[in-house]
Amino acid sequence: MSTKEPVVLGIESSCDETGVGIVRGTQLLANAVSSSMDEHVRFGGVIPEIAARAHLEAFVPTLQQALDTAKLTLDDIDAIAVTSGPGLAGALMVGVSAAKALALATGKPLYGINHLVAHVGVGVLEGTVLPPTFGALLVSGGHTEILKVTSLTKDVQLLGSTIDDAAGEAYDKVARLLGLGYPGGPAIDKAAKDGDRKAFRFPRGLSLPKFVGSAENPGKHRNNFSFSGLKTAVARCVEHFEAAGEPIPVADIAASFQEAVVDVITSKAVRAMVENNLTTVLLGGGVAANTRLRELLAARCASAGIALVVPPFSLCTDNGGMVAALGAQLVADGAKPSGLEFATDSSQPVTQIVLTH
Amino acid sequence: MPNYLSIDTSAHASVALIDADTGAVIAAHTSPKGNDQTETLAGYVRDLMADHGQQGPELAGVIVGVGPGPFTGLRVGLVAARTFGFVWQVPVHGVMSLHALAERVLELDEIPEEFIVASDARRKEVYWATYNRQGALTDGPHVAAAATLPALPVYGVGAGIYEEALREAGAAPQPESFAWIAESAYLAKHGLKDLAAGKDLSNTAPQYLRESDAQVPAFMKQAQAKEATA
């Protein structure tokens, strides 16, 4: 195997996307994704059992599609990487079992890797050059994290995360309150375009001095997020209009809610970058598609002299290409394969980049 | 002569290598635990094949249990079997997992005219099916509370768990079978009979028998009703 530019097949099944991607070194050769999102719409959120059922049916066809796109056979693959966590346990197990069977049947080494670090690892694709040390902001339906990446393959640190709902989850819940459908992110983003983001002042979670502290004496939640209070505030606001028998100002509420989320995420992320001397930040996760998040983050990064890297959207949402990208970095760095006996870990910490044998 | 690889994860992770001509069990292994399919299955297959110098592409095929069984474990075996079939380019045959229990009944000295096999479906229910003396399926598979089963001899781990409820319902749980779970060697035995009889086993769709638990939440129903009337 070419250890400098290994051909790695990556498998992702941590939520509602079945992904199989193939990379050669830092070049993306294929990124096949099958989503069960349509099946979750009527529930207003991802139903784990439905997602897991869909993974089983989608796996082999998605694998075939990725190989076809890359114009490769399994013989051409040097190694296999799979998301071992964090994510939905039942969903993860389908991908991991498939990956183990694939590794065994082909005789290729298998790496069980961290989903969140893979969201960052995708940043090496498509000719993007990342500095040795950088920061990452991951915002999705299941995650809201600020990371410090000293080495993609050896040293990733969690600077902050949500203590309750993920940002994308808050979007879904508020979209329901406003009758805007699922998934909430794009729906609210769209409704907010016609709204006044200063119409309502919704709370910025964990922004009080007692939580934040100072740079020298940081509070417990300086870099952490909370969105459950915000969601409740929006609910009270909607109830207020309903009780008064007045029409609900959907666009203004959507815009003001979005501003509260995006304001607290970007201000905390940029502050964390500055205080950790990180001059580049990578934005990942499905909520990276949000126009206001990108706009405000770009502006605040520019003011702080921080370079912002945003991968193409198809690589920000869950996909196998990101798993393959991180896998290729690990193989090139001489990481040991994870074997065939590892378990999934639905709360795998970012410090565990690859599972050890 | 080629062999079959048999896999069932409807109860515990269970693997076997079966002689395609004679049906003889070359080797078999079943996990003592019911919650380690993801961790153990691939390693069991690796060891089974390595110990017997079996090459994947030289298999006659893969026989896999399609359930019913607890969903998460069941999927682990199904996705692995389908992947083996894809890589090795060998056929994958789906066999209903309760058949594995029925095959064990057929080995008894006295086989009832009609009998039930029952496995653990959790949530105070069993997966069950009825068979005739020749081992042919006569009803099922179903999922139901043990107390609702017909008044017949009942075999399998489900009979042990719900012994009392079954007796009260007039059924006859058979104590010698209370430890029986679906094992891949017995599953293959049934599969080989079906294949010899010319049955098409190409369907490997899981037998969930239950819908996902998801309920459409009230607020979504309201929203959907609004949309429908709008």
From TrEMBL, chain A:
Positions annotated to bind Fe cation: H115, H119, D318
Residue sites binding substrate per the record: L138, V139, S140, G141, G142, D172, G185, D189, N290
Keywords from the UniProt entry: Acyltransferase, Cytoplasm, Iron, Metal-binding, Transferase, tRNA processing
Requisite cofactors: Fe(2+)
Cofactor note: Binds 1 Fe(2+) ion per subunit.
Entry GO MF terms: tRNA N(6)-L-threonylcarbamoyladenine synthase activity
Documented EC number(s): 2.3.1.234
Gene3D superfamilies named in the record: 3.30.420.40
Enzyme class: transferase
Similarity field: Belongs to the KAE1 / TsaD family.
HAMAP family linked to this entry: TsaD
Task performed by this protein: Required for the formation of a threonylcarbamoyl group on adenosine at position 37 (t(6)A37) in tRNAs that read codons beginning with adenine. Is involved in the transfer of the threonylcarbamoyl moiety of threonylcarbamoyl-AMP (TC-AMP) to the N6 group of A37, together with TsaE and TsaB. TsaD likely plays a direct catalytic role in this reaction.
Protein's name in the database: tRNA N6-adenosine threonylcarbamoyltransferase
Gene source species: Glutamicibacter protophormiae (Brevibacterium protophormiae)
TrEMBL record, chain B:
Domain Gcp-like: from-to ranges: 38-138
Pfam families according to UniProt: TsaD
Domain of life: Bacteria
InterPro entries per UniProt: ATPase_NBD, Gcp-like_dom, T6A_TsaB
Listed name of the protein: tRNA threonylcarbamoyl adenosine modification protein YeaZ
Native source species: Glutamicibacter protophormiae (Brevibacterium protophormiae)
